[in-house]
Design a protein that fits this description.
By secondary structure, the protein is mainly alpha-helical. The chain is about 40% helix and about 0% strand. The chain contains 3 helices and no strands. Helix 1 crosses helix 2.
């Protein structure tokens, strides 16, 4: 199967020798080239720091949530997890220590 590769721009990058050697060792372990790992690291950084994150007003909250067939409501699956992580409460909802 033929896959289209994105256009790559050659760049000169100066980095600490020890850091580059670490990339070479990790790349060899993974059967990749150091340049692939460096590109991946740069893309991860760009995703976290450069691209605008959606605000709550931009999210599509109009989708339908449906309970599973064997559940009364869609929160039933999480109730036991939530209750296991809480300290005991009195009947009035107050936490007891």
């Amino acid at each position: 199967m033929y896959t289209v590769q994105p256009a790559l721009k050659p760049v000169t990058l100066y980095m600490l020798t020890k850091l580059y050697e670490t990339y070479q060792i990790e790349a060899q372990k993974k059967g990749k080239k150091a340049s692939e790992l460096i590109r991946d690291a740069m893309e991860d950084y760009a995703q976290r720091n450069f691209y605008q994150k959606k605000s709550m007003s931009q999210l599509n909250l109009n989708r339908t949530v449906k309970a599973r067939d064997n559940q009364k409501d869609f929160l039933s699956d999480y109730k036991s997890d939530f209750m296991d992580n809480q300290t005991s409460t009195s009947g009035n909802g107050q936490l007891e220590n």
